[in-house]
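[STRUCTURE TOKENS]
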Amino acid sequence: MRNLSLIIGVSAFFISTLLSCSENSTDPSGNSEEVVEEITAKPTVIITSTDYNSELFRISFPKMELLQEIGAAYQKNYSNALKNQLIKYMADKVDTLGESVEIFNACMEVTGCKISNSVSLPTYAERAKYDGEDAWMIQLVWGSSPFDLGHYKCFAISMNSKDTLYFKRCK
């Protein structure tokens, strides 16, 4: 009887592992196979001549309307595939604006948004300056779970060193 219970337990473990792996499988490039059909709320990507300092950054961020729009749009259907699709959408916009996608992606890495267990979505990116240094201002909506997308993180990230020049969050 004990052996039968052990076999059933081990079998259940393997089945649940296989199911969870198939739901979260990725291709060799690290992108989820799951595809989101349509991005209904789109992040903003712009270039400005603004030269932020700590005071101007504090009063300029977060961009609440974007946090609320994207948080509300994806709270019920959050996934890593969606996050990857939003990041790709932003990278395509960066390319269209004539900026380096490689530098933008490196700055996105600094935010932690690309980490698969991080429940966050990008909402805003602005190519500007911070204390005279070329930087990306990046804003994320995040939560402790996919149903809690009501918090923000805002970054000023150096395009040269990839250092965080300023950081602001709500929680």
Observations:
- The helical segments are 2-23, 54-60, 64-74, 80-96, 101-111.
